[in-house]
Amino acid sequence: METKDIVLITLRDSSKPMKSAEIAAQAGIDKALVDKAIQALKKEEKIVSPKVCYYSAK
Fold first, then answer.
1. What's the predicted TM-score (pTM) here?
2. Which residues pair with 47 in a beta bridge?
3. CA distance 58 to 48
4. Burial 18-52 (b: 16+ CB within 10 A, else e)
5. Is the pLDDT of residue 1 over 90?
6. Is 7 helix (H, G, I), strand (E, B) or coil?
7. pLDDT tens figures, 43-57
8. Distance between CA 15 and CA 32 in Å, rounded?
9. Beta carbons of 31 and 21 less than 8 angstroms apart
10. Where on the phi/psi map is residue 28: left (φ > 0), alpha (ψ -120 to 50), or beta?
């Protein structure tokens, strides 16, 4: 499974927006990989940022 998929699943399972460090801790992957995945998912418009540095799935 790709990092993007893991990040997206983690955000879908969360009831609130999360920071990238929280996503990394919950998913058990490196924060740098999470940051790259977030950028890709934002371009694909699969996630949104309701406030600065917080992300949630659409």
1. 0.90
2. 57
3. 6
4. bebebbbebbebeeebbeebbeebeeeeebeeeee
5. no
6. helix
7. 999 999 999 999 999
8. 23
9. yes
10. left
